[in-house]
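Same chain as my last thread, 274 residues:
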Amino acid sequence: MRRIALGVLAVLASALVTAAEPLTAPDLSVAQIVEKNAAAKGGLDAWRKIQTMVWVGHVESASAPARFMLAMKRPNKTRFEITALNQMAVRVFDGSHGWKVHPTQAGKPNLQPYTTEELKFAQDEQVIDGPLMDYEAKGIAVKSEGVDEVEGRKAYRLRIRLPSGGSRLLWIDAKTFLEIRYDRESRNVLGQSHTVTVFYRDYRTIDGLQIPCTIESGVATAQAKDRLVIDEVSFNPALGDWMFAKPGTPRQDKPLSIDAEAQPGSDSMVRRAP
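reply #2:
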Protein backbone atom coordinates (compact mmCIF):
# COMPACT_ATOMS: atom_id res chain seq x y z
CA MET A 1 0.00 0.00 0.00
CA ARG A 2 2.82 2.36 0.88
CA ARG A 3 4.47 1.64 -2.49
CA ILE A 4 1.21 2.40 -4.30
CA ALA A 5 0.82 5.64 -2.38
CA LEU A 6 4.35 6.71 -3.26
CA GLY A 7 3.67 5.88 -6.92
CA VAL A 8 0.54 8.01 -6.90
CA LEU A 9 2.44 10.89 -5.31
CA ALA A 10 5.15 10.58 -7.94
CA VAL A 11 2.60 10.76 -10.75
CA LEU A 12 0.92 13.78 -9.17
CA ALA A 13 4.23 15.53 -8.68
CA SER A 14 5.18 14.86 -12.30
CA ALA A 15 1.83 16.23 -13.46
CA LEU A 16 2.30 19.40 -11.41
CA VAL A 17 5.77 19.94 -12.80
CA THR A 18 4.47 19.43 -16.36
CA ALA A 19 1.61 21.87 -15.76
CA ALA A 20 4.04 24.44 -14.43
CA GLU A 21 6.33 24.23 -17.45
CA PRO A 22 6.33 27.47 -19.44
CA LEU A 23 4.85 27.53 -22.90
CA THR A 24 7.98 27.22 -25.01
CA ALA A 25 8.98 26.48 -28.57
CA PRO A 26 12.31 26.68 -30.40
CA ASP A 27 13.64 30.23 -30.25
CA LEU A 28 13.47 31.26 -33.90
CA SER A 29 13.91 34.62 -35.57
CA VAL A 30 11.19 36.16 -37.73
CA ALA A 31 13.21 35.28 -40.84
CA GLN A 32 13.41 31.63 -39.77
CA ILE A 33 9.69 31.42 -38.99
CA VAL A 34 8.79 32.99 -42.33
CA GLU A 35 11.18 30.68 -44.19
CA LYS A 36 9.72 27.59 -42.51
CA ASN A 37 6.18 28.82 -43.17
CA ALA A 38 6.89 29.21 -46.90
CA ALA A 39 8.46 25.75 -47.06
CA ALA A 40 5.53 24.18 -45.19
CA LYS A 41 3.04 25.75 -47.63
CA GLY A 42 4.80 24.30 -50.67
CA GLY A 43 7.74 26.58 -51.28
CA LEU A 44 8.24 30.24 -52.12
CA ASP A 45 9.08 29.60 -55.78
CA ALA A 46 5.94 27.51 -56.29
CA TRP A 47 3.70 30.21 -54.82
CA ARG A 48 5.34 32.92 -56.91
CA LYS A 49 4.16 31.04 -60.00
CA ILE A 50 0.52 31.32 -58.92
CA GLN A 51 -0.86 34.44 -60.59
CA THR A 52 -4.56 33.63 -60.22
CA MET A 53 -6.50 31.32 -57.94
CA VAL A 54 -10.17 30.44 -57.52
CA TRP A 55 -11.96 28.77 -54.63
CA VAL A 56 -15.44 27.28 -54.93
CA GLY A 57 -17.27 25.97 -51.90
CA HIS A 58 -20.11 26.34 -49.45
CA VAL A 59 -20.81 28.31 -46.30
CA GLU A 60 -21.88 26.73 -43.05
CA SER A 61 -23.71 29.51 -41.26
CA ALA A 62 -26.37 30.06 -38.61
CA SER A 63 -28.41 31.70 -41.36
CA ALA A 64 -29.34 30.15 -44.71
CA PRO A 65 -26.81 27.76 -46.35
CA ALA A 66 -24.97 29.26 -49.28
CA ARG A 67 -22.49 28.58 -52.07
CA PHE A 68 -19.55 30.87 -52.76
CA MET A 69 -16.85 31.57 -55.31
CA LEU A 70 -13.71 33.59 -54.57
CA ALA A 71 -11.46 34.65 -57.47
CA MET A 72 -8.07 36.23 -56.76
CA LYS A 73 -5.57 37.82 -59.12
CA ARG A 74 -2.24 39.44 -58.40
CA PRO A 75 -1.38 41.95 -57.21
CA ASN A 76 -4.58 42.58 -55.25
CA LYS A 77 -7.78 41.91 -57.20
CA THR A 78 -10.67 39.92 -55.77
CA ARG A 79 -14.18 38.89 -56.76
CA PHE A 80 -16.47 37.18 -54.27
CA GLU A 81 -19.84 35.73 -55.25
CA ILE A 82 -22.22 34.18 -52.73
CA THR A 83 -25.56 32.60 -53.57
CA ALA A 84 -28.23 31.88 -50.97
CA LEU A 85 -31.97 31.29 -51.38
CA ASN A 86 -31.49 31.54 -55.17
CA GLN A 87 -30.17 35.09 -54.88
CA MET A 88 -26.60 36.17 -55.50
CA ALA A 89 -24.54 38.96 -53.94
CA VAL A 90 -21.24 40.07 -55.47
CA ARG A 91 -18.25 41.98 -54.13
CA VAL A 92 -15.44 43.06 -56.46
CA PHE A 93 -12.18 44.93 -55.88
CA ASP A 94 -9.94 46.04 -58.74
CA GLY A 95 -6.94 46.88 -56.57
CA SER A 96 -8.00 50.48 -55.99
CA HIS A 97 -11.80 50.61 -55.90
CA GLY A 98 -14.46 48.24 -54.66
CA TRP A 99 -18.16 47.69 -55.30
CA LYS A 100 -20.87 45.46 -53.86
CA VAL A 101 -24.10 44.26 -55.43
CA HIS A 102 -26.97 43.00 -53.27
CA PRO A 103 -30.34 41.65 -54.39
CA THR A 104 -33.45 43.65 -53.41
CA GLN A 105 -37.10 42.77 -52.97
CA ALA A 106 -37.89 44.91 -56.01
CA GLY A 107 -35.74 42.59 -58.11
CA LYS A 108 -33.25 45.21 -59.29
CA PRO A 109 -29.75 44.68 -57.84
CA ASN A 110 -28.47 47.42 -55.54
CA LEU A 111 -24.97 48.60 -56.50
CA GLN A 112 -22.91 50.52 -53.94
CA PRO A 113 -19.23 51.43 -53.61
CA TYR A 114 -17.21 50.05 -50.74
CA THR A 115 -17.35 51.99 -47.50
CA THR A 116 -14.15 53.58 -46.22
CA GLU A 117 -13.69 50.67 -43.82
CA GLU A 118 -14.29 48.05 -46.53
CA LEU A 119 -11.92 49.80 -48.91
CA LYS A 120 -9.15 49.96 -46.31
CA PHE A 121 -9.57 46.27 -45.54
CA ALA A 122 -9.46 45.30 -49.24
CA GLN A 123 -6.37 47.42 -49.86
CA ASP A 124 -4.61 45.82 -46.90
CA GLU A 125 -5.30 42.24 -47.99
CA GLN A 126 -2.45 40.22 -49.51
CA VAL A 127 -4.25 37.94 -51.93
CA ILE A 128 -3.10 34.47 -52.96
CA ASP A 129 -0.02 34.02 -50.73
CA GLY A 130 -0.76 36.07 -47.60
CA PRO A 131 1.33 38.70 -45.80
CA LEU A 132 4.44 36.66 -44.94
CA MET A 133 5.78 35.59 -48.31
CA ASP A 134 8.02 38.32 -49.76
CA TYR A 135 6.82 40.54 -46.92
CA GLU A 136 9.71 43.01 -47.17
CA ALA A 137 9.06 43.55 -50.89
CA LYS A 138 5.41 44.23 -50.03
CA GLY A 139 6.42 46.90 -47.51
CA ILE A 140 5.22 44.80 -44.56
CA ALA A 141 6.99 44.68 -41.20
CA VAL A 142 6.83 41.50 -39.12
CA LYS A 143 7.68 41.23 -35.43
CA SER A 144 7.72 38.15 -33.22
CA GLU A 145 5.83 38.56 -29.94
CA GLY A 146 6.45 35.19 -28.34
CA VAL A 147 4.60 31.89 -28.15
CA ASP A 148 0.94 31.30 -27.29
CA GLU A 149 -1.27 28.26 -27.03
CA VAL A 150 -3.92 28.19 -29.75
CA GLU A 151 -6.48 25.42 -29.38
CA GLY A 152 -3.98 23.23 -27.57
CA ARG A 153 -1.08 23.90 -29.95
CA LYS A 154 2.01 26.02 -29.43
CA ALA A 155 2.12 28.82 -31.94
CA TYR A 156 4.38 31.77 -32.72
CA ARG A 157 2.51 35.08 -32.46
CA LEU A 158 3.57 37.52 -35.17
CA ARG A 159 2.64 41.19 -35.34
CA ILE A 160 2.02 42.23 -38.95
CA ARG A 161 2.42 45.95 -39.72
CA LEU A 162 0.92 46.79 -43.11
CA PRO A 163 1.98 49.65 -45.41
CA SER A 164 -1.27 51.48 -44.56
CA GLY A 165 -0.28 51.49 -40.90
CA GLY A 166 -2.83 48.82 -40.05
CA SER A 167 -1.87 45.98 -37.74
CA ARG A 168 -2.73 42.28 -37.70
CA LEU A 169 -1.86 39.34 -35.48
CA LEU A 170 -0.95 36.02 -37.07
CA TRP A 171 -0.25 32.73 -35.30
CA ILE A 172 2.04 30.12 -36.89
CA ASP A 173 1.86 26.54 -35.60
CA ALA A 174 5.22 25.75 -33.97
CA LYS A 175 5.07 22.17 -35.29
CA THR A 176 3.64 22.43 -38.81
CA PHE A 177 4.59 26.11 -39.42
CA LEU A 178 1.23 26.70 -41.10
CA GLU A 179 -1.05 29.65 -40.27
CA ILE A 180 -3.71 28.66 -37.74
CA ARG A 181 -5.18 31.97 -36.56
CA TYR A 182 -5.46 35.55 -37.79
CA ASP A 183 -6.87 38.55 -35.89
CA ARG A 184 -7.76 41.96 -37.27
CA GLU A 185 -9.58 44.97 -35.92
CA SER A 186 -12.75 46.09 -37.68
CA ARG A 187 -15.77 48.32 -37.15
CA ASN A 188 -19.44 47.43 -37.36
CA VAL A 189 -22.18 49.50 -38.98
CA LEU A 190 -22.43 51.58 -35.79
CA GLY A 191 -18.74 52.43 -35.94
CA GLN A 192 -17.90 50.28 -32.93
CA SER A 193 -14.51 48.57 -32.95
CA HIS A 194 -14.26 44.81 -32.54
CA THR A 195 -11.84 41.99 -33.27
CA VAL A 196 -12.49 39.58 -36.12
CA THR A 197 -10.83 36.21 -35.57
CA VAL A 198 -10.14 33.76 -38.39
CA PHE A 199 -9.09 30.13 -37.91
CA TYR A 200 -7.49 28.11 -40.71
CA ARG A 201 -8.27 24.39 -40.53
CA ASP A 202 -8.18 21.16 -42.50
CA TYR A 203 -5.11 21.81 -44.62
CA ARG A 204 -4.96 19.71 -47.80
CA THR A 205 -2.13 19.24 -50.29
CA ILE A 206 -3.27 20.35 -53.76
CA ASP A 207 -0.69 20.27 -56.55
CA GLY A 208 2.02 20.39 -53.89
CA LEU A 209 0.63 23.47 -52.14
CA GLN A 210 -1.03 23.53 -48.73
CA ILE A 211 -4.55 24.99 -48.77
CA PRO A 212 -6.76 25.43 -45.65
CA CYS A 213 -10.02 23.85 -46.82
CA THR A 214 -12.02 25.15 -43.85
CA ILE A 215 -11.88 28.78 -42.79
CA GLU A 216 -13.84 29.77 -39.70
CA SER A 217 -14.39 33.44 -38.89
CA GLY A 218 -16.41 35.62 -36.58
CA VAL A 219 -16.28 38.36 -33.98
CA ALA A 220 -14.19 37.20 -31.05
CA THR A 221 -16.97 37.87 -28.52
CA ALA A 222 -19.68 36.05 -30.49
CA GLN A 223 -20.40 32.34 -30.17
CA ALA A 224 -21.72 31.84 -33.71
CA LYS A 225 -19.04 31.47 -36.38
CA ASP A 226 -19.26 31.24 -40.14
CA ARG A 227 -17.38 28.40 -41.81
CA LEU A 228 -16.24 28.56 -45.42
CA VAL A 229 -15.60 25.05 -46.73
CA ILE A 230 -13.57 24.95 -49.92
CA ASP A 231 -14.69 22.16 -52.24
CA GLU A 232 -12.63 23.01 -55.33
CA VAL A 233 -9.44 24.93 -56.03
CA SER A 234 -8.13 26.15 -59.38
CA PHE A 235 -4.59 27.45 -59.90
CA ASN A 236 -3.79 29.91 -62.70
CA PRO A 237 -7.12 29.96 -64.56
CA ALA A 238 -7.38 32.82 -67.04
CA LEU A 239 -9.18 35.64 -65.23
CA GLY A 240 -9.77 38.77 -67.27
CA ASP A 241 -9.53 42.14 -65.55
CA TRP A 242 -13.19 42.77 -66.48
CA MET A 243 -14.15 40.32 -63.71
CA PHE A 244 -12.81 42.78 -61.14
CA ALA A 245 -14.18 45.95 -62.72
CA LYS A 246 -17.22 47.91 -61.60
CA PRO A 247 -20.35 45.76 -62.08
CA GLY A 248 -22.76 46.82 -64.77
CA THR A 249 -21.15 45.72 -68.04
CA PRO A 250 -22.84 42.86 -69.95
CA ARG A 251 -20.01 40.49 -69.03
CA GLN A 252 -20.16 41.48 -65.36
CA ASP A 253 -23.86 40.64 -65.22
CA LYS A 254 -23.06 36.94 -65.64
CA PRO A 255 -21.79 34.82 -62.74
CA LEU A 256 -18.19 33.76 -63.15
CA SER A 257 -17.74 30.37 -64.82
CA ILE A 258 -14.28 29.07 -64.04
CA ASP A 259 -14.42 26.21 -66.51
CA ALA A 260 -15.26 28.62 -69.31
CA GLU A 261 -12.29 30.78 -68.41
CA ALA A 262 -9.74 27.97 -68.31
CA GLN A 263 -7.17 27.99 -71.09
CA PRO A 264 -4.87 25.26 -72.39
CA GLY A 265 -1.80 25.09 -70.22
CA SER A 266 -3.44 26.46 -67.09
CA ASP A 267 -3.79 24.22 -64.06
CA SER A 268 -7.10 22.39 -64.09
CA MET A 269 -9.72 22.46 -61.39
CA VAL A 270 -8.68 20.30 -58.46
CA ARG A 271 -11.49 18.75 -56.47
CA ARG A 272 -11.02 18.48 -52.75
CA ALA A 273 -10.46 14.95 -51.53
CA PRO A 274 -13.33 13.53 -49.44
